Amino acid sequence: MRTRVKICGITRLQDALAAVEAGADALGFVFYPPSPRAVTPAQAAEIIAALPPFVTTTALFVNAQRNEIDEVVALTQVDLLQFHGDETPEFCQSVQKPFIRALRVKPETDLQAAAQDYAAARALLLDTYVAGVPGGTGAVFDWQLIPETLRPKIVLAGGLTPQSVAQAVAQIRPWAVDVSGGVEQAPGIKDAQKIQEFINEVNRVHV
Fold this sequence. Notes:
- Pathway: Amino-acid biosynthesis; L-tryptophan biosynthesis; L-tryptophan from chorismate: step 3/5.
- By secondary structure, the chain is an alpha/beta fold.
- It has one domain (4-205): TIM Barrel, CATH 3.20.20.
- The chain has helices spanning 13-22, 41-49, 66-76, 89-94, 111-117, 165-172, 192-205; strands at 4-7, 26-30, 56-61, 80-83, 99-105, 123-128, 154-156, 176-179, 184-186, 189-190.
- The strands form two sheets. The chain has an eight-stranded parallel beta barrel with strand order 1-2-3-4-5-6-7-8, surrounded by five helices. A two-stranded antiparallel ribbon has the order 9-10.
């Protein structure tokens, strides 16, 4: 089974098209103002409108108000929501849109319990815990903390780069991998060559 690739933190149409051209399955848009990769609903809508079919678009939120989420969904017509804050299972489901639940993993994180709590999620996205930062830190966590039964269902994130992603895919065999900073020239500005290298490395594992 081929591991899918999501390129997150898209801020420019040229980066979105470069990712799609390279073979990305999904693109992520950050609606969290403190992030250097944040976009407005109008910016994301303009990019999404220019995309070809069969590319999954994802909206990332961190403890956003319900009206903010509704505005983004209405304006952008994203396919999937991604929750990175303290959102409860009830809140995630109340939006009535397919969603991914992101978890920041540390040694004591009970991933089996989280998978049960968020059973309605399409997937769990596992990122690295760094105090005070909801994601996009570029740090890697111990992949051995992921129970083997969950590995085929997760989206693996956290410090992945073209140099490390093949090892991650070979070791964990996740459903998908998610990268942001690892394929950038600067925060929010992607590097088309790094995106291509990243996707090539993912696909190489499955040859």
